[in-house]
């Protein structure tokens, strides 16, 4: 089936809404938590629990979506449930912030902020797995997979543009944070409805493909007393509960086994993706905080209506403009230039160029103090974000389409679902975020310098650029990979 650019944009509309919601919430969440009285390390724990949960459950969500076939499509239910959870978490952040500003509601407000932040982080990121798996299902067998994931990355960047625009403008009514989060919620719901309508018209989205064979829990023996129930309901519910039960008990072990036992081509991509996302997250999550505290010499814990508080708030707002430029350049690059660069120089050179440009921008951010030059650096760092969100996903789709070639180290009868493949990739995404949130926030609190966030982003992007040499980009890399694998195996 031929997919036009407009149709691909409509299919990916929910991804845009997810990025809008996540961008608005996590631009404001670190300052909101610090202003509510949370310490830097406590803020890091709150921001790290969501990615940690995602790291241990995203593979299960991916595999379960591979198995869960229904008349409306195997991915749709997961997308809708996670969208509902995200909406509730956004409301929790809005009302939690409002209560945290009052003396009598401080405790309840802090609880809502903590829970809402964790759930929002978790749902906004895990929801990308069924969205991306759906796109992979639709593009499988077509000749537009690279274009499809370039549009996916562009729509993701467009969502970040809208989100950062909502945080950068001054809202004339209500509190700035609450107004922006409310607008993000409305935009997200509109995007969800758009995707559901676009997918409902595609017969291939509702198809029932062959179930992956690697799910050991797909066949279950039932006690005699359950034989009278409808077979479909019994099988599906029992398999689902058994799957969740096994994952809860053996969650860390099973996830580690899933990642460690992944095909060698997918493993190499996982390592590079983990390091690059750690760098990207450190910049995206703490850049506005860095500008407010280092460049504008403000402080989040300053007395209300003091000069330090005003400077910090202004720095956060100006940092949001830098992140807006970052997303705009990412969107423009991936939609206008990346495909041409891939055709001219190949995936490997394009991917490494993006990572190198991100590293250079992070190094410049450490030494520049002029806000306009800083925001120019933030804008050019969008090239790195563009390649991180598009090229690994396109490679996974290529791996999945030709498993016999790329997954040569697996048994011939062990077929993997696309949700499982993207689940491994997303474990790296969450692992990078968890390291940043749990480790770097404690480091910053210990040394007292927010510069560490940007310094880590620079170092990690250099390491990711080096690791990108080892990724399998095409069939031409397979002979070397096979030779290396055979040597290590011996």
Describe it.
With 490 residues, the chain is mainly alpha-helical. The chain has one domain (5-489): Up-down Bundle (Growth Hormone, Chain: A). It has helices at 5-11, 13-35, 40-67, 76-100, 106-126, 128-139, 145-168, 176-200, 231-249, 251-260, 264-295, 307-336, 338-367, 371-380, 382-401, 403-406, 418-447, 451-467, 478-489. Helix 3 packs across helix 10 (251-260) and helix 4 (76-100) packs antiparallel against helix 8 (176-200). The model is unreliable at 212-229 (pLDDT under 50).
Using DSSP, what is the number of strands?
A: 0
Low-pLDDT windows of residues: 212-229
Taking the alpha carbons of the first and last residues, their distance comes to 45 Å
> Quick one: CATH class?
Mainly Alpha
- The total tally of domains equals 1
Largest sheet: none
Work out the strand percent: under 5%
CATH topology: Growth Hormone, Chain: A
The count of helical stretches stands at 19
| Average residue pLDDT | 83
Q: Using the 3D structure, state the CATH architecture.
A: Up-down Bundle
Task: Give the proportion of residues in helices.
Answer: over 70%
Briefly note the structural class of the backbone. mainly alpha
Structure keywords:
single chain, mainly alpha, 490 residues, Growth Hormone, Chain: A
Give the arrangement of secondary structure elements.
Layout: H1 5-11, H2 13-35, H3 40-67, H4 76-100, H5 106-126, H6 128-139, H7 145-168, H8 176-200, H9 231-249, H10 251-260, H11 264-295, H12 307-336, H13 338-367, H14 371-380, H15 382-401, H16 403-406, H17 418-447, H18 451-467, H19 478-489
Helix pairs in contact: 2-4, 2-5, 2-7, 2-8, 2-11, 3-5, 3-10, 3-17, 4-5, 4-8, 6-7, 6-17, 7-12, 7-15, 11-12, 11-15, 11-17, 11-18, 12-14, 12-15, 13-14, 13-15, 13-18, 15-17, 17-18
